[in-house]
Every structure is written in C-alpha cells, then in structure tokens.
C-alpha cells in the first residue's frame, strides 16, 4: 500500500493555554492531508461536491500519544482502505519530524452520499482503493 505524507509546522495560534496543540486542531491536520492525498491521486473533493457526490466522515477514532507544541515540524501519513461495501477508512498517523515520534494515530471512516443522500462508493474512489491496494510498501 502506498503511503502519502504531508509536512506541517505548528503555528502559535493552534496551541491552547497549556502551550500544546489543541485537540481539535489535529482533525484539521488530518482533513487537510486527506484532501491533498485525494488531489494527488486525481480526485478533486470540490469537483465531487459539484457533481452532488459528497464525501462525509462517519466516525473519527483518534489516539493522542504525545502533544505537539508551537514550532514543532511534523508530518501526517495516510493510506485508504475499503472497510465495507459503502465505507472506506483513512488510516492516518502524525509524527514529529525531529525524532519520528508517533504523536497521534487515527482512523477516519467515511462514505460518499449521492444526491438522494444514499451511501455508495463512487467509481473514482473505488478505483483509488484498487490502485492503492496493488502498490505494496516493503516490510521491515
């Protein structure tokens, strides 16, 4: 499976009174990475919405391992797998760059809704998952 990665740097305003990244901000990092991942594979989230195909999050499971602080450089990795006939999971991790420490592990479950609000997996997403499943990462 191919792993997509995207680099970030924590900005001061993303931190709370404790000086760490607010828990809700992590979801922004994950969402931005999912959108960039899709774009890198030729899937335009906004164009799908114009076609009345809406990608939606059904569930977010986030395991916070350690906090990021202002100035930390980090990256988010992402893979997508089909989890049922009409659902797919984005498996995402956040790592601090200076030591590759795992800061967050997440699983975001989504589906697509057609113009009648019924769940389905559009052809572009199905093709994406098929092509991703064919690509293998060497095991350690």
UniProtKB/TrEMBL annotation:
Gene3D superfamilies in the record = Hotdog Thioesterase
Please name the CDD domains in this protein's record.
4HBT (cd00586)
User: Which residues constitute the signal peptide according to the record?
Assistant: none
Among the Pfam families in the record, one is 4HBT_2
The alphabetical list of record keywords is:
Hydrolase
PANTHER family in the record, alphabetically?
A: 4-HYDROXYBENZOYL-COA THIOESTERASE FAMILY MEMBER, NOVEL THIOESTERASE SUPERFAMILY DOMAIN AND SAPOSIN A-TYPE DOMAIN CONTAINING PROTEIN (0610012H03RIK)
Q: Which family does it belong to?
A: Belongs to the 4-hydroxybenzoyl-CoA thioesterase family.
Record-given protein name: Thioesterase
Q: Which organism is it from?
A: Cellvibrio zantedeschiae
């Amino acid at each position: 499976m191919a792993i997509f990665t995207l680099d970030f740097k924590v900005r001061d305003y993303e931190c709370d009174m404790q000086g760490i990244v607010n828990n809700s901000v992590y979801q922004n990092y994950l969402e931005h990475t999912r959108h960039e991942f899709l774009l890198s594979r030729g899937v335009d989230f906004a164009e799908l919405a114009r076609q009345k195909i809406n990608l939606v999050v059904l569930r977010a499971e986030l395991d916070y391992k350690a906090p990021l602080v202002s100035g930390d450089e980090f990256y988010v990795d992402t893979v997508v797998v089909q989890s049922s006939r009409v659902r797919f999971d984005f498996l995402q991790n956040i790592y601090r760059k200076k030591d590759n420490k795992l800061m967050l592990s997440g699983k975001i479950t989504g589906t697509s809704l057609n113009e009648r609000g019924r769940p389905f997996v559009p052809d572009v997403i199905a093709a994406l998952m098929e092509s991703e499943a064919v690509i293998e990462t060497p095991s350690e």
